[in-house]
Amino acid sequence: MNFGSDNSSGVHPRIMAALAAANDGSAPSYGRDALTEGAAGRLREIFEAPDAAVFLVGTGTGSNALALAQLCPPWGRIFCHETAHIETSESGGPAWMAGGASLALTPGAWGRMTPQALAARIADYPQVDEHDGRNAVLSITNATEWGTVHDAASVAGLCAVARGAGMAVHVDGARFANAVAATGASPAALTWRAGVDALSLGGTKNGCLALEAVVFFDPARAQDFAFRRMRAGHLWSKHRFLAAQALAWLEGGLWLDLARHANAAAAELAAGLRNSGHAPLAPVEANEVFVRLPRAVIARARAAGLRAADWPAAGDDEDRGTIRLVTGWTTTAEEIAALLAVL
Amino acid sequence: MNFGSDNSSGVHPRIMAALAAANDGSAPSYGRDALTEGAAGRLREIFEAPDAAVFLVGTGTGSNALALAQLCPPWGRIFCHETAHIETSESGGPAWMAGGASLALTPGAWGRMTPQALAARIADYPQVDEHDGRNAVLSITNATEWGTVHDAASVAGLCAVARGAGMAVHVDGARFANAVAATGASPAALTWRAGVDALSLGGTKNGCLALEAVVFFDPARAQDFAFRRMRAGHLWSKHRFLAAQALAWLEGGLWLDLARHANAAAAELAAGLRNSGHAPLAPVEANEVFVRLPRAVIARARAAGLRAADWPAAGDDEDRGTIRLVTGWTTTAEEIAALLAVL
Amino acid sequence: MNFGSDNSSGVHPRIMAALAAANDGSAPSYGRDALTEGAAGRLREIFEAPDAAVFLVGTGTGSNALALAQLCPPWGRIFCHETAHIETSESGGPAWMAGGASLALTPGAWGRMTPQALAARIADYPQVDEHDGRNAVLSITNATEWGTVHDAASVAGLCAVARGAGMAVHVDGARFANAVAATGASPAALTWRAGVDALSLGGTKNGCLALEAVVFFDPARAQDFAFRRMRAGHLWSKHRFLAAQALAWLEGGLWLDLARHANAAAAELAAGLRNSGHAPLAPVEANEVFVRLPRAVIARARAAGLRAADWPAAGDDEDRGTIRLVTGWTTTAEEIAALLAVL
Amino acid sequence: MNFGSDNSSGVHPRIMAALAAANDGSAPSYGRDALTEGAAGRLREIFEAPDAAVFLVGTGTGSNALALAQLCPPWGRIFCHETAHIETSESGGPAWMAGGASLALTPGAWGRMTPQALAARIADYPQVDEHDGRNAVLSITNATEWGTVHDAASVAGLCAVARGAGMAVHVDGARFANAVAATGASPAALTWRAGVDALSLGGTKNGCLALEAVVFFDPARAQDFAFRRMRAGHLWSKHRFLAAQALAWLEGGLWLDLARHANAAAAELAAGLRNSGHAPLAPVEANEVFVRLPRAVIARARAAGLRAADWPAAGDDEDRGTIRLVTGWTTTAEEIAALLAVL
């Protein structure tokens, strides 16, 4: 009963096979190989963005931090949800890579900002002179850290506020595939058509070994990004092994199949929880379920093999705590049934 | 005839097999898995350093930059050879990660500093007051960028100078296996026994997919390093796939077998070049051969399939240029023979 | 009617005279002169901290940013009030100088945090592993940005929470003299006796030309601070002219006399406003008065010569806005009367 | 006999008087006052650069570091002489403020680079790809750290090389007035007409209290510089006191009169030294004299009241060492005679 994280799953067999296949003979290093060109091309097609600049890296924090450093001046302010991964879980990486930028936290139910809340937060920082720093970037996580998603209209609404304030827009898409699967929107509709400048697209949580892509829809936005990636140590020398993952992950829509599987597992789990009187806290729209349970029940489930993170939430008390249940491409009906049986 | 870089080789079959084997079921993420513990333990054994702090990352620049940032204060100066990779090829990453540190370049024949040259360079920066910055770290590349190696006595001699000046010592060991194979010294003798504080140990050039280890021989030196690695985006979530590479690479001495193969190939190539009247420029001690050739010959060899980097060197002229020939774990006698035949 | 800022006042005649007097002959540069030693000694006496490390700089942002960089690791989090100057008005300087640290904003009425609010905010950032960054520093502004003050008990209460969480404590004392004058507490009681590690003590707003002091009560906390100050360009070469200001400002308690004058002027202004039906928004405890007025009245007052900053506050509307009235060592009864007459 | 540094001199009476005069009444803070506008205008006139962007700060390191940070990307390389102050004496400030840039040191007799040496050094860093960083800025010190000067042709020759390599040009003009006085060239001829983008113009060593100006001849180069200055803590709140210094220093050519005085004193001192058999090491062109003397003589002179820095130079030995004698606006014929008498 592994609901601890989509990072604890392994690598999809087709992706592992692609790594082995890519290991045939030598290839130019540092991304000058044919697979890398192919992967970038494939991403451009999928995003309907023939000019997009595409960069592959190995980790989500690397992807987020580098993308934000590219969009934000050192004196800039990055607006994000108060539960955004870039705020809670990256040890300050993005602000550091941007040269000492800052994050402006925005509230919102279950991981989602509203345009109104964003506008209010921006208004907290009037732009009078150099004391004020620069309101520079909006970063939206999609799917969010609370397992909800922004559909295309929601992304567009937030982008409109950001652009109206002269800001660029970044999407932390560590679970972007889940958002695409959940909304049915096209990748383009969830990004550049809605006003997004750069996407950190996550593969690692969704079947890859270590693969994230940074996509700048307007290549002018990517100027000198290669230097940033290099000096941060995020340019793989045997780059074909990033590209091979990307190609296999995207091939035949595997990335979305895996995301749909994870989302469906979460929905099934949520339904089961509701039936057993434990309705999830947040809307279950992607691959995460948050549920408040008697602490004794949580302990019993763990004793029976459950892996799940504690996720303290407002309303928890001495007797009842909240846990996060993450489904992934490997989650089975048996795991779900076993968990529901224990609860 | 692929002599372009040891980065253009693929992954050794035993390492690729280990990745596949590691992909069985789920595992805790972020290095809390059993393979990671095993890999760290194995490195401690090999280095006879039971307390060493071991961190795995995916790239050599990440490994160098993070290790140096750990050893060097922001106002510090890192002494290195003027051809050191951290100076020439990392786009300023190490100095940046160290908070704006600087490199003090030291000359020396064929990539090697002498203790005398190092001492003279340190003397260029008297330590009177806060204007002067801090002479903080010595970074030795071993094997060097010119294919030479430092034996244990040479490392110890440099460390003595550095320690006498109150400095810490780092080894850029992107090709450390080649240095061990070339010198016959133990890993411990080439590092902590000689006075080295931290080693960036490279696997990627020597049969791995993406694997480098940062080893701090005194764990007190590693305090808070985990934060550095995390915020720089160098903590892999599916960390077992770093560890699996390490274990397979070290298993049964594979790492040294591969290095010996590469070194032997370079020696064979050098001998052939000498026989054909093209004596290598620098002593061939590891897996790199630098040779000055008529430019017409270089062009002909490339037309025949040679991959090798131009490596401009003092003494080149209009008619004759220098190239770098790198051998690796995949280099075959046929490739060498073919190259010698073309020349 | 200059209530725009205490920065728009000039230099007290005794301080200007001290500058002229210091200009007699030559003196060692970079703080090795006798006046500097004298100023440091005088501050140690006043703070009853014979071992304190004292550094003079020219600006408040320099003082804050350097002090916080000293206390906070790059992966650290600095807790401060959401209206703290380091958050709103320093263009990200402190977080940048600390190597990419972040600020965690804490709410509280009229610029003051409560221990409860601080504890709750710290609890938002559990310290599990390297993803979480480090809860590192509490920064208290005293007097606050809303013209209120923390008395010794209030400082101690906040420090207790911070220290309980393993954090260091900084005071932004741009208006520290006003806080001392307002509370009647000793400088020691408001700082190290309450648990404060470092103070940025402001002279510029209180009669100096350009003078701030960074005081570390435990000199061990100041290790290598001189390098930070130097590389940031905050070590004056003609350092005696910082020290001369400090000595004259402290001489005979001038610093507190000037602060008392400013506080009394604010109290008089507040009383007048109350009498005229315009009660200040925030408690008037130091040298700032915030008042909501009909916008037409504000415009009329400005037309009549009022200088005061707009200070948008919750509750403002189309008809009524809030302004900030800052009194200083130069504020006269005539200015106050003139303003009250206009209103 | 104060030949220790031009920083140990005091403030010229006319400048001190201007500070007192500026202290009349209140003035807008942060550079929005009339004196600041006047000072910027005066500098634009003197440099015949009506569009130049002018920023005042209080220290030379602040001025250099901020100017270079503005011109150099984080992955950039700043070429400078190996004895440049930014390399030897600023504790890494410029490279840090530029986001982790690096300095590429260039040799040259007595503090001067030649175009050939600069071109050779640039050629050390071919610009192939992102590994290589960016050759970004040339920084020329004028007058140099060895008391020599670059005339307009020399500056133009270096600028031509830099511009040919796509680089911007900065002048560290801590002693720029001395260079103008020595060469007789116009300020414009020594800067923008020769190809210079930004000048750090020093007043502190030349009669001011704490005053440096950063001048960008093309205002487009200064975009967002105000944010850099602010967050580094280099925007004075009582900014009129920077501007008042500038105005008095420039008024009636005082800045050049003072520089001429210092230069003449150095020439007189050099002549005296030559007459007494102690010919200066380097050409004496500005206000510094370097002379090798028997160590016993140096000791005797110090015992007699000489203040001068040891300045170790190639050729020193056990018996003879080199000292630096700096003349300033306060140097008197008596001081020179007294020194010569002792020697």
Task: Provide a descriptive summary of the structure in words.
Chains A, B, C, D: InterPro entries: ArAA_b-elim_lyase/Thr_aldolase, PyrdxlP-dep_Trfase, PyrdxlP-dep_Trfase_major, PyrdxlP-dep_Trfase_small. Chains A, B, C, D: Keywords: Pyridoxal phosphate. Chains A, B, C, D: Pfam families: Beta_elim_lyase. With 343 residues, chain A is α/β, with parallel strands linked by helices. Chain A folds into 2 domains: 13-252, Type I PLP-dependent aspartate aminotransferase-like (Major domain) (Aspartate Aminotransferase, domain 2), CATH 3.40.640.10; 254-342, Aspartate Aminotransferase, domain 1, CATH 3.90.1150.10. Chain A contains 13 helices and 10 strands. The first copy, chain A, has helices spanning 13-22, 34-46, 60-71, 85-88, 93-97, 115-123, 152-164, 176-183, 225-231, 240-250, 254-275, 295-303, 333-342; strands at residues 53-57, 76-81, 102-106, 134-141, 168-173, 198-202, 212-216, 288-294, 309-310, 320-326. A 7-stranded mixed beta sheet of chain A has the order 1-7-6-5-4-2-3, with helices on both faces. In chain A, strand 5 (168-173), helix 8 and strand 6 form a beta-alpha-beta unit. In chain A, helix 8 (176-183) crosses helix 11. Chain A is globular, with a radius of gyration of 20 Å. The model of chain A has no long low-confidence stretch (mean pLDDT 97).
